[in-house]
Design goal:
heterodimer, A: alpha/beta, 2-enoyl-CoA Hydratase, Chain A, domain 1, 7-stranded mixed β-sheet, 12 helices, B: alpha+beta, Ribosomal Protein S5, domain 2, 5-stranded mixed β-sheet, 5 strands, 33% strand, globular
Chain lengths: 313, 104
């Protein structure tokens, strides 16, 4: 047994949804809500001749992080691309509402979670139950904003194989803080969707380097779409999450106006760029063509362009 | 899609005190196994839902061999299968028994 990797030693990208939760939280602190033994599964997939998952592809529950109470949701990106269906979405929505309501026991000040951690790994909405999935996404967005308005931070952790696309990309952008590793991709329309609609000349979804330059973690981090870039072990995600929870910005009209202003300026500065290196050149970063290829260590010492480090979330 | 059940008898009670465990993911060429300690000591049972039809005979052979090798008495296994190969099925079943033997 001693030769097995411990949960916190696992690579986030390789780990399952359950392994990520185990490695992120304090050992043995996690209590799952609606666990697989309850078999709360999709009622729709059988019509499409698809077999389901006992947890419908998402693990939700409560636990401790560095001693503090947190709620966690973790998507399994290998089951139907981590996509949102009716049950999958309802589990996340219920978790957020429970956080908002202080888990029904004394309110947020006394017994509610300090933060909600969203371990996103999703292609977006499940095509087989798309209406339910889209509704779930919009309800989840509202719930995130309600949780944040109640003074509880919501953090997105992205570094799985499915990335955070479609509604998952919007959900990410609604969080108080966003943590990414190199594997992360965050966007709304995925590369295949853009290619299908606009043609391969517009976007070649098989060009992996292009995909990562446009929606990958490094680009998101340098343009202010992510707050922390890390090397990608589960321990790295744990350390960064502990460090960021106390510094999550408050949410309200002032934050939204500041974000609107920041994005307007970003569009003015970089709106005519066709690819990420053009942005880096305009922003005055060293060796713009090489930023995608350098090691994580070399990348992490780059000074981010002005405006990328911000509280407008 | 096909759904069936394989029952067997085990030489003895599966080790450990854990009540349940889950391993694997329902993805292409993979499967998830949920195992629960809910049966009398010498009984074992596997419930299977598989994306691929027509391989029931192979499933039964693989599972009966697993019953003999692992002696998983008292355990009910529930499988969501995404078209895993027989060796992967055996591996996941063995993993799930190992998990039940580990500390909770």
């Amino acid at each position: 047994m001693s030769t097995l990797l411990q949960p916190h030693e696992l690579d986030w990208y390789e780990a399952s949804a359950r392994e990520r939760v185990a490695g992120l939280l304090d050992p043995k602190s996690f209590v799952e809500f609606l666990g697989p033994e309850q078999r709360v599964m999709s009622p729709h997939l059988a019509q499409f001749d698809l077999t389901g998952a006992f947890d419908d592809g998402i693990v939700v529950g409560g636990g401790r992080l560095d001693g503090q109470k947190v709620f966690v949701a973790s998507q399994e990106g290998r089951f139907l691309g981590g996509a949102f269906g009716e049950v999958h979405g309802a589990k996340l929505l219920g978790l957020l509402r429970a956080a908002r309501d202080g888990a029904g026991r004394g309110g947020p000040e006394r017994d509610g979670p300090r933060a909600v951690l969203l371990l996103l790994d999703t292609g977006g909405v499940r095509l087989q139950e798309a209406n339910a999935g889209e509704l779930a996404i919009s309800e989840i967005i509202r719930a995130i904003l309600e949780v944040r308005s109640a003074g509880i931070s919501v953090l997105a952790l992205v570094g799985g194989r499915a990335g955070a696309f479609g509604g998952g990309g919007i959900v990410t952008a609604c969080c108080s803080r966003i943590i990414v590793s190199e594997h992360a991709r965050v966007s709304v329309s995925g590369p295949e969707v853009i290619e299908t609609n606009k043609g391969v000349e517009e976007f070649d979804s098989k060009d992996r380097a292009l995909v990562w330059r446009i929606c990958g973690a490094r680009t998101r981090y340098l343009t202010g779409g992510a707050d922390r870039y890390l090397k990608g072990s589960t321990a790295d995600f744990r350390e960064a999450t502990i460090a960021l929870i106390p510094h999550a910005p408050p949410f309200g009209l002032a934050a939204l106006k500041a974000e609107q202003q920041r994005l307007t300026e970003r569009l003015q500065h970089f709106g005519d760029c066709r690819d990420a290196p053009e942005i880096w050149r305009k922003a005055g970063l060293p060796e713009p063509e090489r930023i995608a290829d350098i090691t994580d260590d070399a990348f992490l010492v780059i000074q981010r362009p002005k405006g990328a480090d911000h509280d407008a979330r | 899609m096909e759904q069936f059940q394989v029952r067997g008898t085990a030489k003895g009670r599966a080790g450990g005190d854990r009540h349940q465990a889950i391993t694997g993911v329902n993805a292409s060429g993979n499967l998830e196994v949920l195992v629960e300690r809910v049966l009398p000591e010498h009984e074992c049972l596997v419930d299977i839902i598989t994306a691929v039809t027509g391989f029931r005979g192979i499933w039964e052979a693989v599972i009966q061999e697993f019953f003999e090798r692992s002696s998983p008495g008292g355990l009910r296994f529930s499988i969501n299968d995404g078209g895993a190969r027989p060796d992967t099925v055996t591996l996941r079943l063995m993993q799930s028994v190992r998990l039940m033997e580990s500390a909770p």
